[in-house]
Task: structure prediction
Amino acid sequence: MKESWKYASRQYQPEDTVVSIGSVFIGSGEPVVIAGPCAVESAEQIVETALAVKEAGAHLLRGGAFKPRTSPYDFQGLGAKGLELLAQAREMTGLGIVTEVLDPADVPLVAEYADMLQIGSRNMYNYPLLRAVGRQDKPVLLKRGMSATLYEFLMSAEYILAEGNPNVVLCERGIRGFSDFTRNTLDLSIVPAVKQYSHLPIIVDPSHGTGRPEYIEPMSLAALAAGADGIMVEVHPRPHRALSDADQALTLTQFQEMMKKIRSFLEWRRSYGHSYLEHP
Amino acid sequence: MKESWKYASRQYQPEDTVVSIGSVFIGSGEPVVIAGPCAVESAEQIVETALAVKEAGAHLLRGGAFKPRTSPYDFQGLGAKGLELLAQAREMTGLGIVTEVLDPADVPLVAEYADMLQIGSRNMYNYPLLRAVGRQDKPVLLKRGMSATLYEFLMSAEYILAEGNPNVVLCERGIRGFSDFTRNTLDLSIVPAVKQYSHLPIIVDPSHGTGRPEYIEPMSLAALAAGADGIMVEVHPRPHRALSDADQALTLTQFQEMMKKIRSFLEWRRSYGHSYLEHP
Amino acid sequence: MKESWKYASRQYQPEDTVVSIGSVFIGSGEPVVIAGPCAVESAEQIVETALAVKEAGAHLLRGGAFKPRTSPYDFQGLGAKGLELLAQAREMTGLGIVTEVLDPADVPLVAEYADMLQIGSRNMYNYPLLRAVGRQDKPVLLKRGMSATLYEFLMSAEYILAEGNPNVVLCERGIRGFSDFTRNTLDLSIVPAVKQYSHLPIIVDPSHGTGRPEYIEPMSLAALAAGADGIMVEVHPRPHRALSDADQALTLTQFQEMMKKIRSFLEWRRSYGHSYLEHP
Amino acid sequence: MKESWKYASRQYQPEDTVVSIGSVFIGSGEPVVIAGPCAVESAEQIVETALAVKEAGAHLLRGGAFKPRTSPYDFQGLGAKGLELLAQAREMTGLGIVTEVLDPADVPLVAEYADMLQIGSRNMYNYPLLRAVGRQDKPVLLKRGMSATLYEFLMSAEYILAEGNPNVVLCERGIRGFSDFTRNTLDLSIVPAVKQYSHLPIIVDPSHGTGRPEYIEPMSLAALAAGADGIMVEVHPRPHRALSDADQALTLTQFQEMMKKIRSFLEWRRSYGHSYLEHP
Result:
């Protein structure tokens, strides 16, 4: 791997970056859980989900108001209205909000509502958008492009850092391959690789990474065992009726069950303290 | 392949779309050649190249003024100044100009200068940008994403068409793989596949597709033999000094040589008339 | 690409290898066509096909007697009986026979009947088998593994050459990828790459390469335009009833039609003589 | 995924297969650790390694006597002599031996020495070899092919099972992709997928899966967290001098360190009993 970048590199900054979203810290050694529906669909849906994931132990709420969809005829999200519903859910639960922005022109609007701006896989190479989120001060969740190398991934983070925003969290979400059993191929080796080459936190999205709700629990545990700083999971009250990524989300009950095992695992992992992550 | 789209589909429009850029027609059965440097670097460079490719038989001039680069520290193009130099080169040669646009906010500016707007691979999933070029009336060259399926590729075209701009030309430019002998894997089977499922023209870029100047001639001939509506080739007076994609372009002389063989091939292909493309 | 091999390299032998199978020469500059069914199914089927492809201009007959199948419950070929039927078809048409061998123990038997031994994609890394065909003197057709690099491909040829058999023909047959419109991704750039790094002939199999009969003609022409030394095409009297790779083969009539266009193309290509292949 | 197979499917046999190698059980819910050098190089090397991995807690000893190498000029293993050295190491440590077989003709010899026969990635589609190991009664470790789908992987197991040998353990070892930070892409999602579709045990090889010793510990923990029935790890007294896969193995000390964390993790996992694996 080439090593011509600057701010994102471990050499430039040997100590881990810790990104704070209110009272939640990503990269501190204590993993965080971001949960919520793929898309905000209604006040009922987002509030019901927010209350349930909060109770189950999630730290942040995800939900798309602006949705990038393969087809122009698919549900594109509620837009500004979706942002308001997210703000409502935050008010009721205290959970910080993570939501995607697609257009540089929308950055000020989304940043007004969101606690963390998400750059989706499709936009990892969208440099004007990366620059735009680099010029405001809300933290950024940068998802890996569908077939991005580690070098490209870190350089996209570099675009944001170079504009002055140091609060970037990376997210592995599966790469495109020939798999006949998952939607994408979740590439967990990137977790220790990011830790080696960069100081930025990295979380894992097993929902998009596998596209199969039954694999989310084992792959969440695997991600955390590999040293990830958190996971991002799709949760929906009625996954089969979801307007986006139907049948990919966990139900509220499935999420609660999974969180029990994850909490138990994290207790074990915590017993190592920061030394758990002393690789590589 | 799903077939839920509309305007881009062969069923919606059985006859081939022919896109006209001034007096150049793409999709007419008679292939076109788009040539020029990866990036506009100076007046001398772009004019020298334009004159040479025009003389060798190219139909359109390519050249990037806004360059999407993996690293924020690499040459990002001359911007507006580059557009002016392209306009100068057009004035001197009569060649229409194809140039990339990266930001929805830049579409009006680029459309003012360009004869055809290019959407690069990195932006194939950038839906706000696709919508923006769909709302103006210059033709659009849409490059396939690095790991885009045919369905996703055609749906990105659909975003443009759905906004009212019917003049879209597709471009295969290589997909990401494990190749140890090329930069990307040029996927020529997509040429007959596009002809089967869509009425839109498709051209091939063997320069990015292989990253190896010595393979550009054979792959250009292969693309045209497969039924492509044209090729797009990087040409630079001094490839080893190119500020972007160094050592990937053909020299002016190499391009002239290649064009002789291509012209001879096209004479043969022309002998079949439109029936050459009666597959599939 | 590493260059630690010996016999297969262009440096070791600058002039092109020409492999002769009876009066047919592969690598001479004049492409050959190998045609026939995926599997030999009956005397009628193989003889009918052999007569038709011969008349249409094919140079060699392909047909599997020993078939490697993903499922142990699928038709595994007629074995020794299939070899006899191939010999019968040869007697009636004069066409040399290309057929696959799977087991080192079967090499003497298959070599007794075949004019050329095929090593399939699944066995490109089967070194005992490569050595076994290297120790006999019938020419070998070595197909590229599903995800083989060029280096690995040439090194597998090296295993054969190192045992003393210099008559190896390489065959590109598509690599595994994420394509939603073809069974595999036909990687035609490997044609000029093989010519650059090795002196061995290379042919292309668009039937397995695409899995779609309607793309075989354009991809055959593309392969020959890229400089391939021949093509290998599946032809079956009744493709939908084929016991292996059903619906992938051309019908006898489709093959005849395609051969007209190919002959015309080759006349044009011949006008260049050996200089057509002067790349890279 | 197609589901046309029989013996390998979860529907045919709902309860988990447990494969016993002496007193070691794979698939029992209690993971096993297989460790040792890529290739047996000398009595000293294999005995030193065997003693060290035994003491660190490994359950079985791996080591190649017949090595499939990309180049015919690379070290091909010590052959029968290597088998004898493995037997010696077994005698001194009590560890069962896992070693690869390449040629159907060698199966009786290798089965005489080995406690478990390994089929390498390169031979996952080598059906005569699969049949040969299916016709003897030593357990078989079947590694996933470089770009094998789950269906193909399970069908290769089916070839073995259909011959009468029910003792097959699957092994994920990374798939070929475009990664710039690992040798292969370790596809851990296949662990829950195998558990869902089949009753066969599955282990993970993070050494070949990543090619990077510094990622072996996190990926081993991730594999076990995902529900793997074990791991297989390359360990060598002096990795930089290894005759095969140099610099990929852990040192004896690194392995000992890793085993401490793994043992601690397995204590936690054990607290769940078999219910840990109740997914999917």
Notes: Residues 252-270 of chain B form the longest helix (19 residues). Chain B touches chain C through 46 residues (CB under 8 Å). Chain B has nine helices and ten strands. Strands of chain B lie at 19-21, 24-26, 32-36, 60-62, 96-100, 116-119, 140-143, 168-172, 202-204, 230-234.
